[in-house]
Every structure is written in structure tokens, then in C-alpha cells.
Design a protein that fits this description.
Elements (H helix, E strand, L loop, with lengths): L4 H38 L7 E6 L6 H14 L4 E5 L4 E6 L1 H14 L5 E12 L2 E13 L3 E17 L8 E20 L2 E13 L13 E12 L5 E7 L5 E11 L2
Antiparallel strand pairs: 1-3, 2-3, 4-5, 4-11, 6-7, 7-8, 8-9, 10-11
């Protein structure tokens, strides 16, 4: 009688091999599924974008608005910026992180302008003796031009209109500003103030006849220069002799930060 043990052993071995193959296949499929899930989960999903409008409280000039918009484009290149000059506003489209960065940058740039008090002192002397001085105060916001004028407008006859009646001749008149004009622009920080000043003084040479003469003559002094000031410290801008006289004049300026 032939023994069944070898057959049983072979059957058992075959069953074990089949079970092992099944377990291995299941494990491979499971690992592959997990890998696919992990790969799918690791794909970057773009953050949702939003739109926000920022109104500038201290920026009125178009150039300042453009400067802030340029800064936003350079610092946050992923975001889209659009300016509305009529409303002094900038609209930004981007992710929440972009909008947060835009808000911080705008808050840092949209600040009130510094305001300076410029005091100009014009001192006259004659034959070495002081004869008088005048002070003129101009308020200037940083980066903006300030203009001061004091004087009168003098009529100058530039021609005569033809008329058949000699008793009714019409003259062509052009007016000229006579007096003092100060044009000032302040830039920089309080510890290093940049000042551009144009000071123009115009006066008739002979006040008794120049107003009515056909060809009046005027004396004009113009100072147009850039200066560096230290806050609270006077600086002599010009010192000169007036031609044809014994007079001497000195122009001084001092800048003080108000706020």
C-alpha cells in the first residue's frame, strides 16, 4: 500500500506558496494604493485669491500713488495691483498672504508728510553798518513745492495801438511782478535736510520815474541753488554787494520740523 504522506506534504507546500503569493500581491497593491494617495495628496493646490482695495489717507499726488504701486509690484510680484487715482486707492488681487503683505507695505509708505517751517532772513547793511533786516516764514511739506510772493505788479507799456484820433491812443500794457519771490522745496530727513531755494528780488532802479517811464529799468537778483541744512541751525545762502551802491545784503535760512 503506497503512503499518502508525500502527496499531502506536496499539497501543503503548494497551499503555503499560493497563500504567500496572495499575501505578497495584496501587500504590493496596498503599498501602490498608498503611494498613489500620497502622491495625490502631495500635489500643490494654489491658494484661493481675493481682491481688496486700500484707500490712501495721506497720499494725494499722482506721483506718490505711482511710487506705492511700483513698490507693491516689486515686493509682491505674484499679486496684481490696480490704481484708482480719482479715489486715491489701490486694488490688490492675490492670496491672503499677498494681501497681508500689501497692507503692511502700504501702511509703511502711506504716511503723513513732514512739515517744516523755513525762516528766511534778509539782512541789509550800508557802508559796513547794518541798516535793517526782514524775516519771511514759509511752511513746506516734504517733497512739495512752496511759493511765497510779496510785492506789486507794475504796468509796462509794450506798444501803442494805431488810432486815427490822436487824443484816444490805446497802449499795450504788460504787467511785471516786482518785489520778493521765494520758491522752496524740502527733501530728506530731519537730520539731513535738502533744500532747493529760488529767491528772486526785483525792484525799479529809480522808484520815482520807473513806474511811468516807457522803458523802465529794474534791478534783479536771483538765487537758485540746492543746500544741505541741519535742523535748527541757520545757514547763509548768499552774501553779496549790490552793484552801483554801498549796500551789502545777506540771505540766511533755517529749517525747523513742525510735525
Amino acid at each position: 500500500m503506497t503512503s499518502n504522506k508525500p502527496v499531502k506534504r506536496a499539497a501543503i507546500a503548494l497551499a503555503i506558496s499560493a497563500a504567500a503569493a496572495l499575501v505578497f500581491t495584496t501587500a504590493v497593491l496596498k503599498v501602490d494604493a498608498q503611494s498613489q494617495n500620497t502622491s495625490t495628496g502631495s500635489e500643490h493646490k494654489p491658494d484661493p485669491e481675493s481682491i481688496q482695495t486700500f484707500y490712501l489717507a495721506n497720499t494725494a499726488d499722482l506721483s506718490d500713488l505711482n511710487d506705492i504701486q511700483t513698490s507693491l509690484r516689486n515686493m509682491i510680484p505674484r499679486a496684481k495691483t490696480y490704481s484708482v487715482s480719482a479715489q486715491h486707492a489701490i486694488t490688490v488681487r492675490g492670496t491672503p498672504e499677498d494681501l497681508d503683505a500689501a497692507q503692511k507695505l502700504i501702511a509703511a509708505l502711506d504716511r503723513p508728510r513732514r512739515v517744516y517751517r523755513l525762516t528766511y532772513t534778509i539782512t541789509d547793511s550800508d557802508s559796513g553798518k547794518r541798516s535793517g533786516s526782514q524775516k519771511f516764514v514759509v511752511l513746506a511739506a516734504a517733497g512739495q513745492r512752496s511759493n511765497f510772493k510779496q510785492g506789486s505788479r507794475v504796468p509796462i507799456v509794450t506798444g501803442m495801438m494805431e488810432n486815427t484820433d490822436p487824443s484816444h491812443q490805446n497802449s499795450q500794457v504788460q504787467y511785471m511782478d516786482v518785489g520778493l519771490m521765494i520758491d522752496a522745496t524740502v527733501t530728506g530727513a530731519p537730520d539731513a535736510i535738502g533744500l532747493h531755494s529760488k529767491i528772486e528780488q526785483t525792484s525799479p532802479i529809480d522808484e520815482n520815474t520807473a513806474m511811468s517811464a516807457r522803458d523802465p529799468k529794474f534791478r534783479q537778483i536771483v538765487l537758485d541753488e540746492n543746500f544741505q541744512l541741519v535742523q535748527g541751525r541757520p545757514l547763509v545762502l548768499a552774501s553779496f554787494d549790490i552793484p552801483g551802491t554801498t549796500r551789502h545784503q545777506e540771505i540766511e535760512a533755517v529749517a525747523e520740523l513742525l510735525h
